[in-house]
UniProtKB/TrEMBL annotation:
Residue ranges of domain Lipoyl-binding in the record: 17-99
Family named by the database record: Belongs to the GcvH family.
Keywords: Lipoyl
Name this protein carries in UniProt: Lipoyl-binding domain-containing protein
Source taxon at top rank: Bacteria
SUPFAM superfamilies: Single hybrid motif (SSF51230)
Amino acid sequence: MSETTNYFWTKKQADGTTRVGLNDTGIDDLGKINFADVPAVNTKLTESGPFISVEAEKAVSDLPSPVAGTISLVNPALSAGPEALNSGDSADRWLVDVK
């Protein structure tokens, strides 16, 4: 897992996709996430372009993408709400896989 310069980590998956998740700095700066608007599968991302919008206890922010590509998978746990993003384990705080 590698940290990026913003609130995200990235990890190359065995299938060649890149998993993107929220890192500890993101949680520390934003606080508890109450809402996250994550793009759908097949959404094209550009590096530093629009990615997700979050409402958290310390900030309401639109966060830029750390990678370019097309979203191939969205964390299914996020369909029930943003609770997974508040996990103490950063590996559980993954958002999307990008190819």
